[in-house]
Design a protein that fits this description.
By secondary structure, the protein is of the alpha+beta class. The chain has a single domain (1-64), classed as YefM-like domain (YefM-like fold). Helix content is 52%, strand content 21%. It has helices spanning 7-12, 14-22, 46-63, 72-80, and strands at 2-6, 26-31, 34-39. It has a three-stranded mixed beta sheet.
Length: 81
């Protein structure tokens, strides 16, 4: 459940709201009665998402054959022109 908080109140009580967020509360900040922002706890899965993406890339690379017949130096030089 989100708790609605006016923008002025959010500004004056930010430390209190942040302590609430630390305990899992969610706030919707309003401006003239219209929702403008949500103050929510961070998603802890972002780091694991990056690790999962890296592992998926490694798995993909393991299933592919290495490129042969390429002149890497020529490709590098071509990019410098």
């Amino acid at each position: 459940m989100k708790i609605e908080v006016g923008s002025y109140e959010a500004k004056t009580k930010l430390p209190e709201l942040l302590r609430g967020v630390q305990t899992g509360k969610r706030y919707t900040i309003t401006l003239r009665g219209e929702a403008v922002a949500d103050l929510v706890p961070p998603q802890g899965g972002q780091r694991s998402d990056a690790a999962a993406a890296a592992e998926e890339m490694r798995a993909f690379m393991r299933t592919r054959q290495p490129a042969t017949g390429l002149d890497l130096q020529a490709l590098i030089e071509e990019g410098r022109a």
